[in-house]
Amino acid sequence: MNPLEWSLPVLSLLFACVAAVIAWFGIKMTHTARDLAHETGIGEALMGALFIGASTSLSGITTSVSAAASGYPELAVSNGLGGIAAQTTFLAIADIAYRRANLEHAAASAENLFMSAFLITLLGIHVLAMAIPEFTWFTIHPATLMLFGVYIFGIQLLAKTHEMPMWLPRKTRDTPKEPAEHKNKGKKHLLRLWLRFIGYSAIVAGSGWALAELAVPLIDKSGLSHGIVGGVFTAVSTSIPELVVAVTAVRMGALNLAVGDIIGGNAFDTLFISVSDIAYTSGSIYSAISSTEVFWLSISLVMTGILLMGLIYRQRHGPGNIGLESVALLLIYVVSVTFLTVDSLTA
Asked: What's the pTM?
């Protein structure tokens, strides 16, 4: 059956059901990820940045590739960049859920600081690609291949930063303590944990894709542009797993896992455009985007920069017992969505 033919009540009910599935299995995945981080010695920040961040982004990358292959480059690109902005805002929501102190104060770590700077670098490569959009090689922009190489190299540096950090943020009474030594419960126990994590991740990723598929017909008659649809509706829909993981992680005290999940997921999301560029066969995808996608890229850069400053400054308490950077992130995202929506409707 074609979802476009379904009635609004049916679509809404299915959307709510799929969101509930994501919430349930997202919580289970987060608990399993925390156990793996502690028992393998990977650490919460690296576990969140690499494994959870990538697994929760699978639904989004599927949506972008499908859109690019179908000839909707604006939807593909805005889905990735809008997702980065939405997920960064989710950290502010997680900060609200953590009442003890500012989340960026408590979760400051060498890994999270590195990933924030790494994310700005990846986004900067997209800025360069947009500045020279006509340059292609077999319809693929050179930045696409560069992004893959830089991402792999950055992940290797992240692993080294975790294993042998050259400096560490100052510990305070609000800094969570991770186990200094991992527990050794045997290979069978770890195998069960990994299989459980993979199973939960597959369910969350598949449900996230289904959510995005339902979101498109829900807003099909809204009259909004593909840039708005991708940057807001499908981006937020495919990012719900990150929100569930972040809030669940802070509620159980795994703060580095929460921040690592968001920043790591955002870094992985920068590859959405690269993969979409390969799927888009009409030339470089950078040549087919509009000012809306450039706007989302700019907002993502600004929000990531604010987050990085918050992790470095480490304000213990701010307005409403959340960090000043969290307030700024919420305001920027709300104003951005409002501006683009009004601009699209009046165009």
From this structure: 0.86
